[in-house]
Amino acid sequence: xxxxxxxxxxxxxxxxxxxxxxxxxxxxxxxxxxxxxxxxxxxxxxxxxxxxxxxxxxxxxxxxxxxxxxxxxxxxxxxxxxxxxxxxxxxxxxxxxxxxxxxxxxxxxxxxxxxxxxxxxxxxxxx
Length: 127
Description:
Layout: H1 9-19, H2 24-31, H3 35-42, H4 45-82, H5 89-125
């Protein structure tokens, strides 16, 4: 993750560890910062903003991967429809279905996010 110049080195390290799924207790130990300090940072708007930005980068990568996999998922479902008794068809169908469902969810969320941003921009223009 790129280091944010508005945050301290320790804060950037904490964000990295949060993104890796570490607990606050683990992060405090690894970064040599108290858990109380980490909880205080989590309440800071600048810290929250950078954490959300870093999470967004990860989610964008996941979305791109799902979009790429969705074509393969459709092909696999079509293959299973032609040959439903093939070995592993049930698991492959489940996996393909999960990829497609999650791709559609991401598309819907992006669409809503885009529309909301438009509304917010129009509201800001009228202020």
